[in-house]
Amino acid sequence: MTTLTVNGTEYPLDLADPRVTLLDALRDRLDLTGTKKGCDQGACGACTVLSDGRRILACLTLAAQCDGREITTIEGLESHPMQDAFVRHDAFQCGYCTSGQIMSAVALLGENRAGTDADIREYMSGNLCRCGAYSNIVAAVREVARNA
Amino acid sequence: MREFRYERPATVAEAIRAVSHDPEADFLAGGTTEVDLMKDGVFHPDLLVDITRLPLRGVRRNGTMLQVGALTTMEELAADRTLVERAPFVVEALLRGASAQLRNMATIGGNLLQRTRCRYFRDPAVPACNKREPGSGCEAVNSVARMHAILGASPACIALHASDLAVPLVALDAVVHIQSEEGERLVPLTQFYLMPGETPDRENVLRHGELITAIDIPLPPPGTRSIYLKIRDRASYEFALTSAAVAVIMDGGVIKEARVAMGGIGTIPWRCFEAEEVLREAPATPDTFRSAADGTIRDPFVVPGTAFKVELAKRTLIRALTEVTS
Fold it and tell me: Among all residues of chain A, which has the CA nearest to that of B101?
């Protein structure tokens, strides 16, 4: 049995078959479906979560590699100002990329990389939005960064 | 994904032993290329030996050299203050590669070993790929190509080496530490990669069971100016069409010393010795830059889709030289 720590809760996980990615473990075994499966190939950023505070892609991470790590998903953000800003700035249309965008944006603040709009665009570039809500996403991140 | 076994040995020696004794085993580090290729069905090890918790992480200053543990992540190396100060073009290459998420996962050793982005290599439904199935042919040469190599290429393979980081590292004569059951050997990065020739499946000098444990980055002398210029189809999060890594020492308007390498054009990260020869002790003028560029892109192997890269590569190098010397 492997133990996965997600949002402060420990979950025992049977990984006899190690093909399980962190993304599939979260969604299919722990019922934490806030983390989305987009491309499942490390190209879109929809599955962005934090591991020990750093943003990573859950789709290219094996669950077996995550014991002893503190995983944070969108469910683990407790009314973060970034979530509120995304709502107020209408920073999404279909919403599928949104939890990945928010997790990435929260990490971005911790990395001190939200100084300018150009920086926000550059360091959010791993999160694609097919609806093209980018300008509102930048506005939401900018606002939270300025108020931080 | 095909089934595999997963192990996480506690020591470097155990990890090397585990892979060495199973011809279908491989090391697992950041996984950003490896797990992706396993999902695609291109790569199917029967055993993955997870090395991510081994003590091969961190950057140490050693005189005029930085010794980088192979498991240091791209983000960690990009944050190294000595590197930022002394060789900023390495940091630029790191931060212009992939995304922050991928850079938090991907390791320096793994970055150097990343596989080509050639779409035919990555699609097992394409029968012809000498890199994937030796002797099967090359779809890219006969079909649609664009993100492919024009130097070091052959009719057997035009797959591009996609690493940005490797470009300034070959320019700086970085050295790779390789550990095996027999002991350690050191290989200059300029001699680490193999051109495809008739054996595109062999990309570097690593033998099965050998593990990269560290990379030595010689620091250029204080006063060196450097640049990594990356040209791509979109502004961020994209592989290079062409790129240039240049480090120079100037004396007034004269280039005293130059180190030059290019990415996006070669089957291996391309060190530009001819350009360096042209630039050394030469005035920093457009004529000098043009002959450095002409000397680099010599006898390119082009297919219709890659012909544009000949002039683009030259202009990339000229612009990088212009910016870094002005």
Answer: A56
